[in-house]
């Protein structure tokens, strides 16, 4: 948690330093044009690659196969587009890297052990076991109480009755 907080504090400072360094090398106007181009590139890439990834996700689900990989890829594409839309060269570099399928596969290999996919009775997938709507025998005896059965009340003398 501290690492995330520290990165949120240091990222703007690093981006400002990047603007200053790149501005000294190529000038202010090219830096502004690159920043605006990064925003448009993020939007275009999100539309192009996002739609393709969603098609793959739907195809995997229809075929009854595990759709967790396309789902993670779709989420990483959204993160990549957001990083491109955020002004700054460091976030643009990270965003462009996340648009590359080998980089997304590497992130998937890191995330995969933490994801549990369970096949549901209806043939789909979920992230965990479903809760049954009706209690089963293995869950034990069900006792149905009215609100007055479990709420305490006080009598006329202020003593609590249970």
Explain what you see.
The protein is built from six helices and four strands. A hairpin with a 5-residue loop joins strand 1 and strand 2. Helix 1 packs across helix 2, helix 2 packs antiparallel against helix 3 and helix 3 packs across helix 5. The longest helix is centred in the first third of the chain and has 35 residues. The two termini are 45 Å apart. About 4% of the residues have low confidence.
Please name the defining characteristics of this protein.
two-stranded antiparallel ribbon, 6 helices, 5% strand, single chain, mainly alpha, 162 residues
Beta strand %: under 5%
Using the alpha-carbon principal axes, give the shape. flat
Q: How many DSSP helices?
A: 6
User: Tell me about the biggest sheet?
Assistant: 2 strands, antiparallel
| Radius of gyration using CA atoms only | 26 Å
- Average per-residue pLDDT, rounded, comes to 78
| Total beta strands | 4
Distance between the termini: 45 Å
What is the share of helical residues? 55-70%
Ordered list of secondary-structure elements with their pairings:
Blueprint (H helix, E strand, L loop, with lengths): L1 H25 L1 H35 L5 H18 L3 H10 L2 H11 L6 E2 L5 E2 L20 H4 L2 E2 L5 E2 L1
Antiparallel strand pairs: 1-2, 3-4
Helix pairs in contact: 1-2, 2-3, 3-4, 3-5
């Amino acid at each position: 948690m501290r690492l995330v907080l520290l990165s949120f504090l240091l990222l703007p400072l690093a981006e400002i330093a990047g603007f200053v360094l790149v501005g000294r090398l190529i000038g202010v106007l090219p830096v502004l044009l690159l920043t605006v181009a990064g925003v448009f590139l993020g939007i275009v890439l999100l539309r192009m690659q996002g739609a393709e990834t969603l098609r793959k996700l739907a195809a995997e689900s229809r075929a009854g196969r595990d759709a967790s990989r396309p789902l993670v890829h779709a989420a990483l594409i959204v993160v990549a587009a957001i990083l491109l839309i955020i002004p700054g060269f460091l976030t643009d570099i990270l965003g462009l890297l996340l648009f590359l399928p080998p980089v997304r596969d590497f992130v998937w290999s890191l995330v995969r052990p933490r994801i549990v996919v369970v096949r549901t009775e209806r043939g789909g997938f979920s992230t965990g076991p479903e809760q049954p709507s009706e209690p089963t025998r293995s869950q034990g005896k069900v006792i149905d109480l009215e609100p007055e059965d479990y709420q305490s009340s006080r009598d006329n003398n202020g003593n609590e009755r249970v």
